[in-house]
Structures are given as structure tokens and as C-alpha cells.
Amino acid sequence: MFDWFDALGNWVAFQLLGLGSESQLGLAVQFFIMDTAKIFFLLVAVIYLMGLLRAYVSTERVRQLVAGRPKWQARSLAITLGSVTPFCSCSSVPLFIGFVEARIPVGITFAFLIASPMINEVAVVLLISILGWEVALLYVLAGLVVAYVGSIIIEWFKPERWVESYVWDIKMRQQQEEMAHAGGFNQRHDFAWNEVKVIVKRIWHWVFIGIALGAVFHGYVPEEWVTAYLSDATDWWSVPAAVLMGVPLYSNAIGVIPFIEAMINKGVPIGTSLALMMSIAALSLPELLILRKVIKWQALAVFVGVLTVAFISVGYLFNYLFS
């Protein structure tokens, strides 16, 4: 199936535009066309299907269900909800506020906040197409463990005391999905298609930026440079450096995957590449700036510290497993 997109990239770059198949520009354009077509196809298809699912199962009802469960069940449900919502880190903050307003323990709300940008169905499908189902499955398992264990560690610090006082009084707006539940398939279809339009409109430019960075990396970064500086999994500093590099950047897992694909194609170890991906997706500077309006510096420091250690550990583990 994905060969169609590769063929489209070849046709546009090498036949329609007449670029050389060995030139840096030709390789960059071919990569850009191929990944743009593939990612947006998957983006629309998967978000639509998940929109239909959400039209049958209300997020608000799930939130109420989580609030009345034992902590281990509530944590698992929050992570599951985060895993099936294709949000970037910043877009997850409003639901984070909604969880807090519903008096769900703040440690559990962090489980959602970690899982939502790290794991989503589009990113998993893309990872399968790029790295195979084994790596994609291990990445999902790593994300689930990070969200579950990380939220427990954050909960030990009693982060409720660090939530800004005004947040407790915020009422999250009712979502249009409630109207879809009361209607038939046409209403659910309209809701799902609206989800596609809203989410794609919110993230399309970040997807393009991620693809463009991946294309530039793919076409212009010399393989010798990558081999010399980034591809040695035995360099202890490479994984921490990748995590630190990801913090100033901003994208979601979908938008950053093309860049990660190009890095891996150039010889960067899988663990180092995925550590960068996780940092960009779940530990971005824009997200931290938004979160600071919701939680105090102490909670923010704990959140950053736990995820930094977790992402570095996962990076080392993947480098060890796939070396």
C-alpha cells in the first residue's frame, strides 16, 4: 500500500519536475512528496475513524467514569483515552484542565498528559510503515510504561498543592459529540468529519514543518557527518543530547516521524532517534509555557524531570535492543 506513495514521490520529483534521482534536491523533494501524501492520507483516515468511535462513546462520560474508579483503573483509563486522542502536547492541556476540574487526582491527569502526545493511532501506523511492527509495538509499550509509572512518581509529590487556584473553578465546555450521540449515523459522520477538519487545521503546518525538516535531513545532511557524530550508540551522551535537543522544538508524534525516519535512514540509532521524538512530542517548550499557566514551577520541574529521565532510559534501552 505504502509503495503507492513512494511511486508518487518518484513521479513528481524525477519525472514531473525533472530533478536528478541522485541529486540532493531531487532526494529531498521525493521524500517530501512521498511523506506528505502518506501522512495526510493516514491522518484523515484514522482521525475520521476515531471520530466515529468518539461519537458513540462520549469523552465526557469517559471522564466521569475515570473519576469514580480506583486509582489503578482510573490511571489505565486516562492513559487509554490519551492514547486514542491525536492531540499534540499543547492541545492536551484543555482536557488536563477538565480532569482537574472534575476532581480527578492530578497524578492521574498527568498520565493522560504524558500518553496523549506520545501515543496515538496515526503515529503507530506510521511507525509500523517505517520501522516495522516490532519497533512500533515496543514504542507503544514504552509509552504506556512511561505514562503509568511517570504519573505514579509525580503523584508521590502531591501535585494538587501546586495547581493554580483559578483552575479549580474552570468548567470545561461541552463537546459537540453529545449532540452526535443523540442522532443517527449522519450526525456521527458529520462529527467525525468535523474532527478531521479541526485537528488537521490545528496541526497541518507542524506536519509540513516536520516533513520539510525530514526532507532536508534526508537530502542534504551528508551521511558521513551523521555517521561521525550521531550514529554511534556507544556514545553515552547521544541520547541525553537528543532529549535536550527536542525541548525547544514543537510538533506532535505525527509531525516529527518524517524527521525521525530521515535520521534513522542516515544511520542514527533507533533509541537516539525515538528519544528525540518523545522529547519533541511530550516535552516541548510551548507545552511547558502553557502548563505554567495551570501549574506552579514546582510541579513543572517534577514533570520535566520525570519525563527526561524516562526518555533517556527508553533511548538507552532501544539502542541496546537494536544495536
From TrEMBL:
Entry keyword annotation includes Cytoplasm: no
Keywords: Cell membrane, Membrane, Transmembrane, Transmembrane helix
Superkingdom of the organism of origin: Bacteria
Membrane disposition: Multi-pass membrane protein
Statement: the UniProt record of this protein carries the keyword Transcription regulation: no
Residue intervals passing through the bilayer: 12-32, 39-57, 77-100, 107-130, 136-157, 203-221, 241-260, 267-285, 297-322
Cellular compartment(s): Cell membrane
Similarity field: Belongs to the UPF0718 family.
Official protein name in the record: Permease
Organism: Thiomicrorhabdus immobilis
